[in-house]
Amino acid sequence: MLFVVLNAGVAQAMESTTKTIRVVKSKGQRALVIFPNSVAPQTGETYRIIDSFEEGWSEESAFPQRNYTIDLSSQVGRSSTTAGSTSVATTGLAFDARFGLNWQNIELGPAVSILYAGVGTTSTSVIGFGGFVDFNFIENRPGTFFVPGVGVNAGVKIQSSTMSFGAGADLFLKVFVFDNATALKIALLGDYYSGKVGAVNVASMTLGLGLGLQVYF
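RE: above sequence
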């Protein structure tokens, strides 16, 4: 995203047939504008507007697209695991990788994860496979800076020869602080999984905080 400040009395011409700009915000003779990808303005340059905006111009055409996404994130959380009549609290660190399709209000796709958890000096690892759906409160389209929303996910977790099934939800905020295609994602999350170890029912509930990097293309 490129922003410049334009003042009245400018001198350099812009080719009206191929280049257009969009005014995002204005005050008096100063304005915050967006240039298309074909223009790379430099500090101190001036432009002369010689006609109105080109018919059919859209903000999306000035930015990289957000049709697909790759999401790499980590989460730290506190889990309560119950096996029969025994309950144990653990702290864990998880890493997720997701690929998704973006339809602006909805994003969905497959996900894989690996979780490391420990109790005292004992640690264990869990591998997860599943899918996710993010519901964006604001359309996640080119030019949007903040995208809050809620997400749901479901899948299977494998620990040694034990499998558990469950689902989770998260409240997130995506902030495009790096560029129009790369967002920092912050999330509050929770999930519930259950399975069996022999004849014993095992259930785990986790609450945590997530931080990740989401790239769109």
